[in-house]
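Appendix C: a fully annotated inverse folding record. The material below is reproduced so that readers can follow the format used throughout the book. The structure is listed first as tokens, followed by the designed sequence.
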């Protein structure tokens, strides 16, 4: 059933939303948001705005132009925060925003929908966080946010492994101050062979394996993957990463980051329009994203 209320058109009443970052030419966000607008018959349009310098002025200018809301991508997720009139508590803890919601007469309020998007994607696949033992690979901004999310959702124990263990330790020390009840341990990637007995959920939060370097994984040792019952790679291009292949070869379940991308955008759309996006609309967007990525039905099957 097609729930589109009317043709997606542009007129003098069209609300404008968009993405700021650098670069933005590769982004799938316009596909995501314009598909939702088309589905619901909302009079809005979403574009991508490359911002090479002074992101704070870009935010101020967007508000002055009446832009209804913005997404923010690298390298500006932290740099825009001083320009905001309010920031959601969880985004403050993460130290980065990716969604700005217009507050009339004031400015924009900042949210981070990346981690709620990851959590919603995991929920849809039946992946548990509460009470789970989790291994996070990487210690960059994405890994830090993942560690914050897993601690906030009640993970029993979290291991943060990175090539440079000092960076992993910095993440662990900070998150312990927010969630002391979560047992967190930092280590190097070589420590993966010394993890305690048992199986775990592993979240791959580095850029290793991302196109065009599709033949690499952050850890190659097959013995490590025998310990993973579920692997979640934040990378979505390629659709089937080397990390995911190694997880499946060892008998585990493996997922990529496409649904995280999808749900972080869905949550932003919900915030902007004060609504709940339904399952049929989510499925419509998922199929559009896969088509945009050039995935065949066989390759893109869930």
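Designed amino acids, in order:
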């Amino acid at each position: 059933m097609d729930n589109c209320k009317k043709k997606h058109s542009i007129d003098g009443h069209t609300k404008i939303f968009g993405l700021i970052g650098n670069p933005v030419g590769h982004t799938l966000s316009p596909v995501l948001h314009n598909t939702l607008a088309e589905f619901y018959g909302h009079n809005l349009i979403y574009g991508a705005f490359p911002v090479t310098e002074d992101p704070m002025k870009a935010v101020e200018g967007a508000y002055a132009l009446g832009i209804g809301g913005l997404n923010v991508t690298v390298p500006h997720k932290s740099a825009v925060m001083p320009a905001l009139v309010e920031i959601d508590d969880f985004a403050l803890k993460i130290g980065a925003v990716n969604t700005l919601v217009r507050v009339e007469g004031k400015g924009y309020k900042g949210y981070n929908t990346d981690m709620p998007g990851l959590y919603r994607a995991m929920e849809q696949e039946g992946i548990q966080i509460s009470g789970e033992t989790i291994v996070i690979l990487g210690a960059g901004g994405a890994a830090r946010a993942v560690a914050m999310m897993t601690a906030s959702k009640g993970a029993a124990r979290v291991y943060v492994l990175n090539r440079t263990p000092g960076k992993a330790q910095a993440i662990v020390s900070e998150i312990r101050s927010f969630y002391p009840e979560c047992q967190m341990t930092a280590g190097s990637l070589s420590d993966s062979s010394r993890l305690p007995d048992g199986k775990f959920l592993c979240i791959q939060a580095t850029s290793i394996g991302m196109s065009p370097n599709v033949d690499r994984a952050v850890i190659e040792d097959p013995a490590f993957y025998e310990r993973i019952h579920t692997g979640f790679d934040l990378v979505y291009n390629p659709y089937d990463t080397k990390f995911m292949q190694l997880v499946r070869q060892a008998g585990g379940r493996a997922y990529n980051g496409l649904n995280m991308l999808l749900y972080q955008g869905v949550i932003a759309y919900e915030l902007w329009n004060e609504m709940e996006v339904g399952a049929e609309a989510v499925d419509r967007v998922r199929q559009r994203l896969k088509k945009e990525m050039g995935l065949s039905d066989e390759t893109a099957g869930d």
